Amino acid sequence: MRRRTAVLTAGALTGTLALTGCSGSGAGPKRAELSVSASYMPQPVSADMAAGFLTITNKGGTGDELTSVSSDVAGEVTMHSTTGGAMTEKSSFPIPAHGRLVFRSGGNHLMFEKLKRAPKQGQKVTLKLGFAKSGSLTVEMPVRPTTYNPSTGH
User: Fold this and answer.
1) Cα separation of 46 and 118, whole Å?
2) Reduced to 3 DSSP states, what percent helix, strand and coil does the chain have, rounded to the nearest 5?
3) Which end of the chain is more exposed for a tag (fewer CB within 10 A), N or C?
4) C-beta separation of 127 from 73 below 8 A
5) Residue 30, Cβ neighbours under 10 Å: how many?
6) Can you tell me whether residue 27 is helix, strand or coil?
7) Are 56 and 95 in contact (CB under 8 A)?
8) How many Cα atoms within 13 Å fall on the side-chain side of residue 34?
9) 3-class DSSP state for residue 45?
């Protein structure tokens, strides 16, 4: 009986070590490494709607997907793409490994609908970005002048 216990314990220990070896820093599963930059909202000209722009960068070895956006300033936040002047609402946007997703004027953008208050220049709007694999990120988006045109091109 003692010998069988020792064999089972050794087997369990070997399995644990093998699994631990797989999760080391070099051999572990690749994952997305997301960050947000260049976020801003032009001060809204409408009482019930605003636009938002930002860049999501993925320095990780696997892609992810932006699946939701919410903000306490709006009843809902929707994601849109613009192609050839036609705006289409999207339920998600892919973020490739070692790539980025850009929301810019005239292209992909966020629409803050059913505004609960009118954001003013100099204030910040809090966003919660939801991702398929990486959970969520909270972002503070500054409100810029209505005519703001960033040097980054978006």
Assistant:
1) 8
2) 15, 50, 40
3) N
4) no
5) 10
6) coil
7) yes
8) 26
9) coil
